């Protein structure tokens, strides 16, 4: 949610800011801006360079590449609007009355209205409607020659979330950084330092980063940096190639094609087939505590919450631990009743989702054991949970989450075996699950072979305006995921509902213009799904089925079928979701949408 990049060093800052910002555009893309200190023409000599524009960076690429901007200190921002409309004046960097202090901000200042009112009474003149501008005026108010000191005083007055990078013309040769509940990292290069909200922006310059912690302030200078306390260096594990499109038209398609790899990466070195168990090194330190746990609360948002719902079914059926799922934005406000034998499991690709992190803080306050299932190494969630398992899905750039979902499902399946084997799960059952898990990457590759067929279906169905997605048991959450994916990138109306729920109201909408995608693998609820499909067909609704290979009968009752290979019922979501991701992708691409950057959305939702 919003991207920040900053540079200080011997090179020209502008090209570095520009390429970093392009890599961060998936975090927000309604407007963008740059501030570079000590620039030469086309800005007036010795006058800093400030540039802001509404729209996507890619649309202004021609204009930007013609700019010659000198200067080795700069900050840049790509915005996902929270407060204030999408206008140039609301774009970052923001600045104070005297145009001395320039700032980029990721997050939200919750008490900005009262601060603004007070500052206006004191004579400050605001230009934008953006909450972030209050930070500039507060820093101006407290500035007494030392920028970090003014930032420190400012942050004492604000409530909310922030990752900020600030430059002052009156205390030049430094960038001051600070963070609270919004990601911010410091990249350490040779004779240069970078700041970014995401490793993707610094990876071409350095792999050595320091993740700032909440309430920390750092100062970077051309030749050194300091933070208010000692911090460990972390190695970025992604390669640049992984963060690029590799010839695919969109990141989303590339990432769907990497879904088999995401499963493979999650399980690599972790399955112990002979012992019917798994090795999850990240849980070693709490292994004994986990034996005492008799209730699990899984917390996540959006797509990750659907993975958590599949996890709930797995954990109850095979580990026999009562489990429930809460979405992050609800958990902290519903006054949950928990005890010392409850554990919280937090599922998040980014590890930075504000709602999930807020729930994590709430659970920690209650003294509950917390576990993270996270993709991003060193993310806030990874740092703040007691223990956890990385999904190792690699960088996910498209806003719509795809391969990370597969990593989450594979990890939840392994966690089920881990906890199950600590309890009553028999060796033979453990062996069965892990050996089926080992086969999944190959089976997922088989599903991807249907891509051309799914593209044809997308052509056939793309002009419908409404869709149902239905499934039962393990595939009920997959119906929700299929619907979310379709609506977020194609802007068509889609809803996911448990197959058995249709007749309780939703069926009223079915007619020949309302197709349904029915996930009906040959499993324990197959017959029930067939009844639900028949209810739809009786009302004239077109049906696309996702069914198990070899099921020829289904063809007699539905309009179209996509086949997936057979696997254990609890693992079918990892196969059934792949055609749904492909279907959404092709529909959106055929409709001509910006698939990787759907309107109104952004990756990593770091505001509540
Ligand atoms: C949907 C999507 C979102 C995220 C949600 C949680 O395609 O990407 O629903 O799943 O915002 O994000 P993470 O997993 O980063 O916590």
UniProtKB/TrEMBL annotation:
Its subcellular locations are: Cytoplasm
Which processes are annotated in GO (biological process)?
A: carbohydrate metabolic process; fructose 6-phosphate metabolic process; protein N-linked glycosylation; UDP-N-acetylglucosamine metabolic process
What's an example GO cellular component term for this entry? cytosol
Enumerate the PROSITE patterns for this protein. Answer: GATASE_TYPE_2 (PS51278), SIS (PS51464)
CDD domains, A to Z: GFAT (cd00714), SIS_GlmS_GlmD_1 (cd05008), SIS_GlmS_GlmD_2 (cd05009)
Q: What is its EC number?
A: 2.6.1.16
Active site (catalytic residues): 2, 603
- Looking at the record, the residues that make up the SIS domain are 286-425, 457-598
Residue span(s) of domain Glutamine amidotransferase type-2: 2-223
Q: Which reaction does this chain catalyze?
A: D-fructose 6-phosphate + L-glutamine = D-glucosamine 6-phosphate + L-glutamate
Main EC class the enzyme belongs to = transferase
Gene3D superfamilies, A to Z: Glucose-6-phosphate isomerase like protein, domain 1, Glutamine Phosphoribosylpyrophosphate, subunit 1, domain 1
Q: What keywords are assigned to this protein?
A: Aminotransferase, Cytoplasm, Glutamine amidotransferase, Repeat, Transferase
Assembly with partners or alone: Homodimer.
The name this protein goes by in its record: Glutamine--fructose-6-phosphate aminotransferase [isomerizing]
């Amino acid at each position: 949610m919003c991207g920040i990049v900053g540079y200080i060093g011997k090179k020209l800052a502008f090209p570095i800011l520009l390429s970093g910002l392009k890599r961060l555009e998936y975090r927000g893309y309604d407007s963008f801006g740059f501030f570079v200190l000590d620039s030469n023409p086309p800005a007036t000599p010795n006058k800093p360079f400030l540039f802001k524009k509404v729209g996507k960076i890619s649309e202004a690429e021609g204009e930007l590449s013609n700019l010659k901007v000198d200067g080795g200190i700069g900050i840049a921002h790509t915005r996902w609007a929270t407060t204030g409309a999408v206008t140039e004046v609301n774009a970052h960097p923001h600045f104070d009355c005297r145009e001395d202090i320039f700032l980029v901000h990721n997050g939200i200042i919750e008490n900005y209205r009262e601060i603004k009112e007070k500052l206006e009474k004191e004579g400050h003149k605001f230009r934008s409607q953006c909450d972030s501008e209050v930070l500039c005026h507060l820093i101006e108010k407290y500035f007494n020659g030392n920028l970090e000191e003014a930032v420190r005083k400012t942050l004492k007055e604000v409530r909310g979330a922030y990752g900020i990078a600030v430059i002052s013309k009156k205390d030049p040769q430094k960038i001051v950084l600070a963070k609270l509940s919004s990601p911010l990292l410091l990249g350490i290069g040779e004779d240069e330092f970078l700041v970014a909200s995401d490793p993707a922006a610094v990876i071409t310059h350095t792999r050595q980063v320091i993740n700032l912690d909440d309430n920390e302030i750092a100062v970077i200078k051309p030749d050194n940096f300091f933070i208010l306390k000692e911090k460990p260096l972390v190695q970025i594990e992604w390669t640049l190639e992984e963060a690029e499109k590799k010839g695919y038209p969109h990141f989303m398609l590339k990432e769907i094609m990497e879904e088999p790899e995401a499963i493979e990466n999650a399980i690599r070195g972790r399955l112990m087939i002979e012992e019917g168990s798994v090795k999850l090194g990240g849980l070693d330190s709490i292994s004994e505590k986990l034996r005492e746990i008799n209730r699990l609360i899984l917390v996540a948002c959006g797509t990750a919450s659907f993975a958590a719902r599949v996890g709930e079914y797995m954990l109850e059926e095979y580990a026999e631990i009562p489990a429930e799922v809460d979405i992050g934005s609800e958990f902290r406000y519903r006054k949950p009743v928990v005890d010392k034998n409850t554990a919280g499991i937090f599922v998040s690709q980014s590890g930075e989702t504000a709602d999930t992190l807020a729930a994590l803080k709430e659970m920690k306050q209650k003294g509950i054991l917390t576990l993270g299932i996270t993709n991003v190494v060193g993310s806030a969630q990874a740092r703040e949970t007691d223990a956890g398992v990385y999904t190792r899905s690699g960088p996910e750039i498209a806003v719509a989450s795809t391969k990370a979902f597969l990593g989450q499902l594979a990890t939840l399946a392994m966690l089920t075996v881990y906890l199950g084997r600590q309890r009553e799960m028999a060796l033979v059952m453990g062996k069965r699950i892990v050996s089926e898990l080992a086969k999944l990457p190959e089976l997922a590759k088989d599903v991807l072979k249907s891509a051309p067929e799914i593209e044809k279906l997308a052509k056939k169905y793309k002009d419908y305006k409404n869709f149902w997605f239905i499934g039962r048991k393990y595939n009920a959450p997959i119906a929700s995921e299929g619907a979310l994916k379709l609506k977020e990138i194609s802007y068509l109306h889609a809803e996911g509902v448990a197959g058995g729920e249709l007749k309780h109201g939703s069926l009223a909408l079915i007619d020949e213009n309302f197709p349904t995608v029915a996930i009906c693998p040959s499993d324990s609820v197959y017959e029930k799904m067939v009844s639900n499909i028949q209810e739809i067909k009786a009302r004239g609704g077109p049906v696309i089925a996702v069914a198990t290979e070899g099921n020829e009968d289904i063809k007699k009752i539905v309009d179209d079928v996509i086949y997936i290979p057979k696997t254990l019922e609890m693992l079918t979501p990892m196969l059934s979701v792949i055609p749904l991701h492909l279907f959404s992708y092709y529909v959106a691409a055929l409709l001509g949408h910006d698939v990787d950057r759907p309107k109104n959305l952004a990756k990593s939702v770091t505001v509540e």
